[in-house]
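Example (one chain per record):
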Amino acid sequence: MKTVPLIAVVFAGAVVVSSCSGGRHEPTEKYYLVAANIKLSYWQNAQAGLIHAARTFAVQAEMIGPDTYDPPAERDAFRKAVAAKPAGILVSAADPNIMRPEIDAAAAQGIPVITIDSDVPNSKRVTFVGTNNYQAGLMGGRVLSQKLNGKGNIVVFTMPGQANLDERLHGYKDAIGEHSGIKIVREVDVKGDPRIAFDTAEDIMNREAAKVDGFVCLEAEACKEIADVLNRRKAAGKVILAMDTYKETLEWIQKGVIAATIGQKPYTMAYFGTQMADDLHHVKPPTLDRNWSQDLFSIVPAFVDTGATLIDKSNVDAFLQAQTSAQANK
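Predicted structure:
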């Protein structure tokens, strides 16, 4: 996917201008954010962005979804949101195949749906707001290649079929493909359960530690578990590349166990996504029942890139301090 920053900025400006006009919002107007594993700090940050946007517009907002990684339960939560006839829905699809018909059904009812974090590109969602996941994978893959000096065996922890993670893996593969000495020897499906990452890392260190030089985590939960395993065993020389900015992940970077992580902006995804949904609710297009990504006259960009940041030992202290300040100001 290609970013379209100019169009995105123009649309954002339109949102801000129209949103500042008085009297268009009703007290019953409500927006939903639907995700899986919503107790994770990642989604708590997204919820903060959602609530901030809702307060700005004096409307209602709610994040719903299962407390664990459960794609069917996320689908059920999405159906609940649709049944409430909301002004708009944001959704991060754990399984795009499950969510595609649900999104299309919502669009047919005139409910604008915007994907954030993890896309469903072949659905009738209006746009995707989130990380350029392929570029995030390239970023991580290049750091990994540098840390390994172009040679080593890698184990990847992911959840196959989730669009954002598949795109990150594609980026990693393209980056390390430039180095014939680096091989992905195993892809582990963690199924949203950090215990699988911990147990798999334990098994690798017991049975084939000498054959594995690095670990790549395409989602947030796995690498802090892997770092814990390696730290307990005092295993030196292994390279770990993580995802997202959990406090434990950043602390493992400080200690030198994790080499780097790629930080995303879930707060921004939810805040800006709500702005876009609000504008689509109040300035309705003739129909939402269309494939927006292939519409050459679409009023919105196909993709809004919220950005990603590489965090390593050179800048991790600043990110930890920012987290501490944010928590203190809640």
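Caption: The first strand starts at residue 30 and ends at 34.
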